[in-house]
Amino acid sequence: MALSGQGDVPGYVYLVLAAVLTALAAIALIFVAPLLQGGDSPESSSAYWAGAKPISILEAWAIADEDNVTYPYLKLKNNGERPVRITRLLGGGKSIGNFYNDETSAEASIDGSFTLAPGDAAYFGQPSQGKPGHWVGLQPSNASAAPGESALIPAASVCSPFGSLNPGIARVDGFGFEYVEEIGGQELTRQEPGAKPLVVYCKPY
Question: How far apart are CA 99 and CA 170, in angstroms?
């Protein structure tokens, strides 16, 4: 004799699955929504910065190392008609004038190290990101930089801790560049704060 209902999934199982899915969706919304305020996704940020002038960003992503410091990889390009000399990076309402140079194991001035003719490219990134070690780091906006660590940009969000299954998204509000451009024989210092934040996907270290 066949048992009644044999092979059927009890109705309460569907209720449990629905509750779990709803909870997961709510958790995702809580953590992701603040990073995507105003529709600022990594895709829209990438599209904006790829067309920025005179300094565009052709590629951007980030990693977090064992010390949970976030390092952005930035491929920059002079998208303008004149040579530019980058002097500072802007972000989080502040600006930094140094980067860390692995070749000398010391901080160095951005000014004088990143001069780009029209069409030229330059990079910020760690050796682990496939480029010479000319890097800057991101730190939470509410954190204080340690003495001597002037190559850190305040960020609205940083990558998830090292080893996390979901690396996360890094975001820097007010990101941009200070640069020197020669016009009519005169050197003019300008700032290029972005109309959109820099929002990038994080990758496993």
Answer: 19
